[in-house]
Amino acid sequence: MPGRPICGERRIPSITGGRCRWPKASNSTSCERGSGVNAPVQATSSLLRPASRLSAIGVSEILKITDLAAELKRQGRDVIVLGTGEPDFDTPEHVKDAARRAMDAGATKYTALDGTPELKAAIRAKFKRDNGLDFAQDEITVSAGAKQILFNAMMATLEPGDEVIIPTPYWVTYADIVLVMGGKPVLVPCREANGFRLTADDLAQVITPSTRWVMLNSPSNPSGAAYSAMHYRPILDVLLAHPQVWLMVDDIYEHIVYDDFRFVTPAAIEPSLRDRILTVNGVSKAYAMTGWRIGYAGGPAELIRAMAVVQSQSTSCPSSISQAAAMAALNGPADIVRERCRSFQARRDFAVTALNKIEGVTCRLPEGAFYTFAGCAGLIGRTTPDNHRIDSDSDFAQYLLRRVGVAVVPGSAFGLAPYFRISYATSPSELEEACRRIAHATRELSH
Ligand code: PMP
């Protein structure tokens, strides 16, 4: 894989002498995190001395590209941003109505620590209806987004040096949360030939006595790849043989799946693993509620209790009004979600076809989410009209932004190069124009 090693531009404390000390299994590239992924947190005045744990993490390249695009826009440039991971739809009206009603009824106070009983009941019903999972009330937790769920789970369980297996390409937050807890992300590259999915063999090779968690995400951000029951089965068999290893599954894109793909979640496939699976979900993506900040999970009561302790000393509880809104979303009609999914599918089909027509670019058809993860290996080594060599996917992303005002995120930011991610959760006309511009900019590259 021509992606260059990436530890260089981050101040990761576990890197010495240019070598990354994340555990590196024979078939894992623990260093491969994308050049310049994050801006290091540095003291700006002599009074501030940031805690050393912060030097491991920073602002993701996605936000950096979005910021740069915003800056170019401010300068009057015409920029199309395909970087953001949120639906362009608005929150459904019945959900907003529920929030208004909740406010009027006085639901403006602290709530139960990790979710109101009413919302937990709606979540239990959702798990039963959509996933065939029976959770008791004390096996459910609610937080300010799925991101806080992950944060709580890792803070509640990781000891320094514990290893967490993360297939790449991956949502950058996974590794950063592990790092900030003093854990060790073990990044396992998942080849495009395997549909960007982790295989049981890859997994078996990287499990050690220090492995605490495996993190899986289906459909995936950034690849859009999803695991069917057939893909999960051998992975779960490996986990059955390693009782010290827990599984975190991030199902946040559950409802955004295409064609005849049948979404399934591991706790439903292998009930005997239920005692060590945390099934994470949320309302951000399915119901276009990113700003409301509600995520939830089902898992063993002991873990859920420990996560509530963490939450009790950070945010106390999720927003009372947002919880009422999330309840309306989960209990409400499903057809609006299906209708929006059809719209995403049309955009996916358009984007994949357009990208595959570009010489030097290849794009796999994703099963879900609203991203394409296109390969640009064929463009590496080419030269821009102003005489710069494209040496990496980051170079290509920078070139697209400078030359034609299209913001995409390089695959190296997600731990797998050379690729670039576009989010097609944008208007069809913008998407069309962006693909036209990418094709144009690519034609201008010389061999
Ligand atoms: N998991 C994945 C894979 C995501 O892409 C995101 C959002 N980008 C989240 C979790 C976080 O979602 P939330 O808004 O619920 O924190």
Automatic annotation (TrEMBL):
<protein>
    <recommendedName>
        <fullName>Aminotransferase</fullName>
        <ecNumber>2.6.1.-</ecNumber>
    </recommendedName>
</protein>
<keyword id="KW-0808">Transferase</keyword>
<keyword id="KW-0663">Pyridoxal phosphate</keyword>
<dbReference type="InterPro" id="IPR004838">
    <property type="entry name" value="NHTrfase_class1_PyrdxlP-BS"/>
</dbReference>
<feature type="region of interest" description="Disordered">
    <location>
        <begin position="18"/>
        <end position="37"/>
    </location>
</feature>
<comment type="similarity">
    <text>Belongs to the class-I pyridoxal-phosphate-dependent aminotransferase family.</text>
</comment>
<keyword id="KW-0032">Aminotransferase</keyword>
<dbReference type="InterPro" id="IPR015421">
    <property type="entry name" value="PyrdxlP-dep_Trfase_major"/>
</dbReference>
<dbReference type="InterPro" id="IPR015422">
    <property type="entry name" value="PyrdxlP-dep_Trfase_small"/>
</dbReference>
<dbReference type="InterPro" id="IPR050596">
    <property type="entry name" value="AspAT/PAT-like"/>
</dbReference>
<feature type="domain" description="Aminotransferase class I/classII large">
    <location>
        <begin position="78"/>
        <end position="438"/>
    </location>
</feature>
<dbReference type="InterPro" id="IPR004839">
    <property type="entry name" value="Aminotransferase_I/II_large"/>
</dbReference>
<dbReference type="Pfam" id="PF00155">
    <property type="entry name" value="Aminotran_1_2"/>
</dbReference>
<dbReference type="InterPro" id="IPR015424">
    <property type="entry name" value="PyrdxlP-dep_Trfase"/>
</dbReference>
<dbReference type="GO" id="GO:0008483">
    <property type="term" value="F:transaminase activity"/>
</dbReference>
